[in-house]
Amino acid sequence: PPSYHKMNLALGQGVRRLHVSAAFNAKAKVSMSRFEPSNYVSYEKLNENVNIVRKRLNRPLTLSEKIVYGHLDDPVGQDIARGHTYLRLRPDRVAMQDATAQMAMLQFISSGLPCVAVPSTIHCDHLIEAQIGGAKDLARAKDINAEVYNFLASAGAKYGVGFWKPGSGIIHQIILENYAYPGVLLIGTDSHTPNGGGLGSICIGVGGADAVDVMAGIPWELKCPKVIGVKLTGKLSGWTSPKDVILKVAGILTVKGGTGAIVEYHGPGVDSISCTGMATICNMGAEIGATTSVFPYNHRMKTYLEKTGRGDIASLADDYADLLVPDPGCEYDSIVEINLDELKPHINGPFTPDLAHPMADIGATAVKNGWPLEVKVGLIGSCTNSSYEDMGRSASVAKQALDKGLKCKAAFTITPGSEQIRATIERDGYSKILGDVGGMVLANACGPCIGQWDRRDVKKGEKNTIVTSYNRNFTARNDANPATHAFVASPEIVTALAIAGTLDFNPEVDYLTAANGEKFKLEPPSADELPKLDFDPGQDTYQHPPAEGGSKLRVDVSPTSTRLQLLEPFDKWAGGDLEDLQVLIKVKGKCTTDHISAAGPWLKFRGHLDNISNNMLIGAVNIENDGINKIKNQLTGEYGGVPDVARHYKANGLSWVVVGDDNYGEGSSREHAALEPRHLGGRCIIVKSFARIHETNLKKQGMLPLTFQIPADYDKIRPDDKISIKGLANFTPGKVIVNHSDGSKDDFQLNHTFNETQIEWFQAGSALNRMKELQ
Known about the structure:
The structure is a single chain. With 775 residues, the protein is of the alpha/beta class. The protein has 25 helices and 34 strands. The strands form 10 sheets. A 7-stranded mixed barrel has the order 24-29-30-31-34-33-32. Strands 8-7-4-5-6-23 form a 6-stranded mixed beta sheet, with helices on both faces. A hairpin with a 7-residue loop joins strand 14 (346-348) and strand 15 (356-358). Mean pLDDT is 94; it is low at 1-22.
C-alpha cells in the first residue's frame, strides 16, 4: 500500500532501516495513561496535520493553533479563519465531573450507542458538602448520594467510561496527575477544564451535550479561536505567586475579554513558574471567558511528568519539542505583557473575579467602599490552588506564625486537590502544620468553592468578608449568603490574612505581634515544587471499565427517583416563525449560570431535569422591580417565582422568551442552564452578548440564542411584551416585532451565530434528536 511505500522512503533501506524502524515503533507506542495501555500518544499524526495546515496557511503557527488544527477532522479541506469559521475537531479524550456527568450520561444512554468512542472518565467531586471535616463529610456524601454514585459507576462500566470514586479528588487535579500531557486535546464538562494547559494541553470546558458528541465519535465543533498572547518577562519571587499572574490578567482583560480566544503564555518569564503554577494560571483563565489557556512545553512540565510516573511521555515530548512550542515569528491577535519582576501580590473581588487590587491598596479601597475588614474565614485549596507547592508555601507561612505562638484569628479550611496530594502532604508534615495553626482539612473535593459548604458562623444576610484561593467569587456562590464579600488570592496570601484576621494586612510590609509581645514580619514563603520522595498515591479510588465490555450490564433508573430521570426528546421545530412569545423576565445586569441554575443545595437534582428546573433563574434580577425570583404572571396578573410562572405558561400553551444583558451565562459550563428553559417552555434567549459555553449549550438543546444588533435596543423591551421572531424558514432570524401592552409596536434586528449543523439541531429540536435522525 502507498502508506507502506512512504514509510520505506522515510526509513531508508536495508539494515539501517530495520534499526530506525525499531526506534520508530518504540517511539510510536507510548500509552496516553497507565489506565489505558492500548491508547497511544499520537505525535506523528499531530505533526502530520500541523505540517499540512502550516503549508496551506503559509505562515508560522501559535502553539494553540498547532494543537487545535493538529486535531482537525479534515486538515486538508477545513476552512480556517481565526474568530470566524467553525472547526470540526477530533478530541483525544473526555472528562466529566459527577454533577454534569449525570446529564451527559443520560443523554449518551438515549443516543442508543453501545460504548464510548474515545477514552472517557467520570470524577466524583461536586456532591460532597463541607461540614465537619474530610472523613466524616465524605462518609455522609457517600450515603446521601448513593443512588447517583451507583448510577454513574454502573453507566461508566456499561459504556466503557473510567470511574473515579468519591474521595479521589477534584477532576482537574486528577487530569493533571494522570491524563493531561503536552499536545493532547481534551474536553471536559466543567468550565475549569483549562487547568490542563499548565501541562501544555489544550483542555476546553464544554456542556454535556458536546461531551456526548465526542463520546459518540462525531466531530466536535468549535468556533476557530482567536489567540491572545501573554508575554511574560522577569522572574517570580518573594510573595508573588503564579495566582497573581492571572489575578493581574483578569484585571486587564475583564470577565469577557478572553471570549472566543485562547490565551497563550510565552516569553522568558515562563520558566520561572512551576508546572502546577502554570495550571493555576490556565485554570482561572475561565474567569476572563477564554476558550482555554496554554503554556509551551518546557523542563518544568518534563519534571512534573516524570514525578507523576509518565517519564515515557516526557521523553517522547522531548523528541517532538518543536511541535509543542509556538513557531518563531507567529502572530497573536493581541498581546499583553507582564514583567514578573515588577508584579506584586494581588487580591480580586468582591462579587466579581476581575476587580483586581494590589495587596498594598486593598485596605484603603475596602474602607472607602464599606467592605468589612474583618476576615471571618480563609479557605485554601480548590481545583485552582491545591498543588503540593501551594500547600507547602501555605505551610511555610503557617509555620512562622506557630513558631511565634500564633494561630489563625479567622476560621481556616484546607481542601486537598486529590487523594495523592492529601496523602503526600500528610506524610510530609504539611497537614499537621496547617492543622496546628487552626486549619480544618476538608474532603478531597470541590466543597465551598462551588457552594458545597454548610456554613454556620454567620447568619444569612449578615455582611462579612471571606478570602479564598478559589477562582470565582460571584454573589452568594460560596455560602449562599448574598452579603458575603468574597475575595480571591493566592493560598499563601489567604493563609497570611487568616492569621492576621484582617483584610488590610499586607505581609510584604506589615508586622504581626507574637505571643510574647514582640513585633515580627513574615518572611516570603518558600517550598518545594514537587516532593523530594515520590508522591504517596494514598487509597486506590479508580474503577476500570470491565475488560470484556459492558453489553451484559444494566443501568437502572427508578421511575420514582427524585435524583435521576431518564430524558424525553424535546419537540421538533414546527416549521414556522415564532409568534407572540411572552417575555418571561427581562434580566437586569450580571447573569451567570449560577443565577440561571444555582449550585449548592440544587446539585443533588442535576440528574433530574424536572426537579432541577425549579431553580431556573431564581437568582436573576427582574428589571421591573429589582426583585429576585419575583415576576408578574401576565395570564393571572399575580406575582410568583420564575419557574412557577414558566410552568403556568407552559401548561397554558404559551411559549416564552428571556431578555438579558451582557456576557449572559458566564461562569460554570452547566448545561442545566440551557436544559431548564427548554424544558419549561422557553424558545428564545435575547441578550446583548453571550458567554461562549452557554450560547453553544442553548443551541444544543434546540433554543434560539440571539443578540441585539444594536445593544441599546434592550431598552425598548418591556417586561410584559409579546415578541415575534421572523425569518426562521430560511433561518435569517433578523427581524423581531415587539408588541407592547398599550398597543404600540417596535421592531429591530437580531443577530445569530448558527452554522449549518447547528441549524439542523434547531430544526430537529435538539442536537441529540439530530444525532438519532442520522443513525
